[in-house]
Amino acid sequence: MKYAILYAAKSTADKNASIPTQLRQGRELAEADSFSVAGEYKDENKSAFTGDRGDELVKAKAHAEQLVGEGHEVTLIVQHSDRLARGDGVQAAHLVEYALWAIKSGVKIVSKQDAHTFADLLYAVVTGQRNHEDSARKSQATKDGIERRAVERGLAVGGRRRFGYRWADDRSGMLIPVPHEAEVVDLRMYRATLAGVSGLQIARELEADGVKTVKGGRWHAGTISQILRNPLYKGMVRHQGEVYPGKHEPIVDPEIWDAVAALLSSRRKSKGKGRGRPPATGHHLFRKGMLRCICGGAMVTRTDRRTLADGSEAMYEYYECYNHHCDPASCPVTKLRREAVDPKVYAYFERVGVDVEATRAEMETAQTAHVSEVRALRGQADQEAQKAREGLERVKRDYIDGRIDAENWNDIRGDLTGGLEAAEAQVARFDQQLADVEAGGATRDLEAEVVEKLTAIRAAVAGEVQDAEGVDAARAALQRLFEGFTLRHPALGQRVPAELAWSGPDDFVLEPTLREGVIPSPEPLYSAKNNFNVAVVT
Q1: Secondary structure (DSSP) of 197-246
Q2: Considering the chain, what is the average pLDDT of its residues?
């Protein structure tokens, strides 16, 4: 007898009746070749690309082998070879595996749409590879299409949630802000970056305060950098290098996001452009080409140790024209003492860029937000402690009711008790932290603190302290405001900021270059714009 086994398959749900069509075509082919149909098998919603087809294909092969064992001629009929396999031989079966099975089992495989495929093994190898590549291409195209349509609708592409957001419960793809995480992103990452705080320092502070990442792990500077560069936080979604307006609520004000992006971009562009040794004290206000000489070359930082007459050592800090350093004949400018340059620029910056009252209000807002953040973290810790208590009580009831024995109770109780104690200790730490933060907010004199911050920056710029945090903050503010400063010989009648002109053996002015788009008006400290107040050089 000549028997035919029919097999049909669909990788997804068969909404368009593909499987009935495949079986009908198989019956027509069997009838044309005078085969009796011994069985029909079908697999629906079973991929041959990400895995082997389903149980029905296994049954079809077993049926064919049984009929061969009984002495019959058997043909396995499919619509196309890719109904059997689309795999790479690792993640899913390769087509050639079925060709080898047919040879070993004495079964003939006939494909209606690519009849030559099973003529010999070489065809099976080539066709199997093509089937796999076609499926990979279609899979990627489908994924890209789904992602593109989602992004065009203003929805973020799926995956693990981003810190600061959670996925909406309705599976719509909408992002919902997580309040306490959103405050961390806004205040302790973006605004802190504008204040000159490094990514490494932000990570250390979050670790110290018990703030966890999405995965519950440690913070790193690289993680902070990824968040700072992600337009998601200003209400945009990104797909394949393009950015689209999102439907989700932004965590960070777009202007603040753009200011941080400009600051990070200026750091990246200037990286590696500076020359010379890094200063030993870290007090130089200008680095990496932000200060230019009259010849156009970079003024690089230098620090020397000098032995005084009394035998003590002193630091001599200065800027040197790199062109002059390489070729003295190329530029007449030799060295400028740092204390002759930096304090002038700072005085100019303080006058035109700092709004003390707005800074005070900004600090007050940050204080309120910090209290809210610690309260939210304390609430999370309390929930974890409550879960631990409930877990211990459940196991205790099971022990009392006889559902677990004494040995298991003793083992589990130790683990659960330890977890509860740790959770309660975390609650106690947050209680103390909350008390400290609230007490600090109740007693602080914000006006005095603003003055203290300004004084710290002045001291750092003047080189009076070994801690360089103040000058880091001033440098970050300057980079947001200015492309740089250029040393010039003053021209008669030239209008320059009064603080940036001085006379002596060499008459120079420092000419500031504003960043594109900067609006001339004072703003809070660390987020200042610029307002020119000029003097005429006579």
Answers
A1: --HHHHHHHHHHTT---TTS----HHHHHHHHT-GGGGTEEEETTEEEE-
A2: 76
Which amino acid is residue 15, in one-letter code?
Answer: K
- The rounded distance, in Å, linking the Cα atoms of 319 and 296 is 14
Cα separation, 316 vs 506, whole angstroms: 19
Nearest to 186 by CA among 232, 233, 219: 233
The whole-model pTM stands at 0.39
Least confident piece of the model among 95-104, 186-195, 406-415, 437-446: 437-446
Q: Between residues 24 and 51, which one has the greater pLDDT?
A: 24
Which amino acid is located at 24 in the chain? R
Cα gap 465→451, rounded to integer Å: 17
- Please name every residue paired with 41 in a beta bridge, in sequence order, or none if there are none: 7
* Residues 258 and 193: beta-carbon distance below 8 Å: no
Distance CA 328, CA 438 (A): 60
The three-class DSSP label of residue 148 is helix
pLDDT band at 38 (very low <50, low <70, confident <90, very high): very high
What CA–CA distance (Å, rounded) separates 8 from 83?
Answer: 7
Q: For 261-321, what is the HEC assignment?
A: HHHHHHHHHHCCCCCCCCCCCCCCCCCCCCEECCCCCEEEEEEEEEECCCCCEEEEEEEEE
Instruction: Assess contact for 171 and 192: CB atoms under 8 A.
Output: no
Closest CA to 248 of 150, 140, 328, 334: 150
Is the pLDDT confidence value at 387 over 80? yes
Residues in a beta bridge with 242: 239
| Contacts with 143 (C-beta within 8 Å, 6 or more apart), sequence order | none
Q: 202 near 224, Cβ under 8 Å?
A: yes
- Assign 344 to helix, strand or coil: helix
Under 8 Å between Cβ of 393 and 424:
no
**Rounded-to-integer distance, Cα 247 and Cα 251, Å:** 12
The 3-class secondary structure across 1-13, one letter per residue, is: CEEEEEEEEECCC
The three-point CA angle 416-417-423 to 5° equals 90
**Strands 313-321 and 299-307, sheet pairing:** antiparallel
Q: Are 528 and 354 contacting, i.e. CB atoms less than 8 angstroms apart?
A: yes
CB 284 within 8 A of CB 317: yes
Lowest mean pLDDT among 87-91, 229-233, 365-369: 365-369
DSSP secondary structure of 410-479: HHHHHHHHHHHHHHHHHHHHHHHHHHHHHHHHHH--HHHHHHHHHHHHHHHHTT--S--HHHHHHHHHHH
Yes or no: say if 388 and 423 are a contact pair by the CB < 8 Å rule. Answer: yes
